[in-house]
Design goal:
mainly alpha; two-stranded antiparallel ribbon; 4 helices
């Protein structure tokens, strides 16, 4: 009668190979877990967009290659990579947009004051500056004296 392999003790080489395989499996699980944690981080925003065939093929390639498991995950990953690669430009644009918002708010405030003056309505006393981006009153710069 033949000896059952499951009953036979493993040789040292077989035992090492089994350990290596278990370690590799544990590493794959850990990498997948880490990737899932990164992907799940604050993704509460949903957008819909249209893609041309080339962009859709790129997403499908990323999914087939295992970079991401879904088209949505691949699209999100590509957007993140694009944002990171263009961080200096985006920081400059953010500052410019903040300045545009400030100027737009200042123009609206001046127009409102002008309209009130024409209507002979009382003007509010000392209207504070306002930060449109945070919808909070802005602090006056320290170098500016209060009069």
């Amino acid at each position: 009668m033949e000896e059952d392999d499951s009953e036979r003790p493993l040789t040292e080489e077989e035992d090492q190979e089994r350990l290596v395989q278990e370690l590799r499996k544990a590493q794959r699980v850990a990498r997948a877990d880490e990737r899932a944690r990164r992907e799940s981080r604050s993704k509460d925003n949903v957008i819909t967009c249209r893609l041309d065939d080339q962009a859709l093929d790129a997403l499908d390639t990323l999914v087939e290659a295992g970079v991401r498991s879904t088209r949505a995950g691949a699209a999100s990953w590509l957007i993140g990579v694009g944002l990171e690669a263009n961080r200096p430009l985006l920081e400059e644009l953010t500052q410019t947009v903040a300045e545009i918002r400030r100027l737009r708010h200042a123009a609206a405030y001046r127009a409102q004051r002008f309209t009130r003056r024409d209507q002979d309505t009382p003007e509010p006393a000392d209207q504070p500056d306002h930060n449109h981006a945070t919808d909070q009153p802005s602090r006056r710069p320290r170098w500016r004296s209060e009069r």
